[in-house]
Structures are given as structure tokens and as C-alpha cells.
Input
Amino acid sequence: EPFPLGKRACSYNGCKCNSRGKQLTVCGNCVWSDNNAYVVTTKRVSTHIFECAPNGNCCDYGKASDCGSASARCK
Output
């Protein structure tokens, strides 16, 4: 059972997102459906979950079991 993200430290490791002005919690393998560009643009790890701020700031929660797969959290 993975920890709820609220209990997990989010590391501000220099990652960046193209979050299009939205607050997002997404896996590193997520892409925008209209152009297939990755949401996480810098320090992306496909198996990690990231918190993306509207301004493109980002932190990394670390590995998540669904990330890197077809059922990854991408919203």
C-alpha cells in the first residue's frame, strides 16, 4: 500500500513542469494528449510522481507503483 502523498516529502530537486497554468499531480511518464510533450520537462523520472505548480515549479514525491505504466496518474 503506497503512502498517501500528503504524508510523503516532496523534494524540490530542480525539476520543472510544462503545467499550462494548472496545479497537477502527475507521473513522470505523462504526456499532453494534444502534442505528446512530457508534462515534467526537467529531471523527469518516468516511475516517480511529481507535483507541478501553475508556474512550472515542481517537486518529486519519488517512486509510485502506477507511474511508468499505462495506468499512470496523469490528471
Remarks:
- The chain has one domain: 5-63.
